[in-house]
Amino acid sequence: MLTSKQRAYLRGLANGIDPIFHVGKGGVTPEFTDSVEKALDARELVKINVLDNNLLGPREVAQTIAERTHADVVQVIGNRFVLYKAAKKPVIELPKAAKK
Fold it and tell me: Where are the chain's structural domains?
């Protein structure tokens, strides 16, 4: 679970990257999910574009992929969304969570 500070940090990093996947009328297939999971393992932060001919909205697609890949949804904006999943050897260093 990401804190708001961590989410804001990741949004800033995602601002400069382009979408590497497009979800079209085929929807979220197991093969697509596997591809996204491999990309998350390699990059940690992935931006995905949802095309207009998809039956689901961007929020539903983001939630479905996040559940299947055990990733966190960083943001959904327009037809795009950003996912984050920490790698075994993290490259992105998140800000520390505040202690309660």
Answer: 4-84
Please say whether the beta carbons of 85 and 41 come within 8 A: yes
Q: Are 25 and 32 in contact (CB under 8 A)?
A: no
State the SS3 of 30-72.
Answer: HHHHHHHHHHHHHHCEEEEEECCCCCCCHHHHHHHHHHHHCCE
Contact call for residues 54 and 24 (beta carbons, < 8 A): yes
- Spell out the CATH class of 4-84: alpha beta
Average pLDDT, stretch 19-36? 93
Q: What's the pTM?
A: 0.90
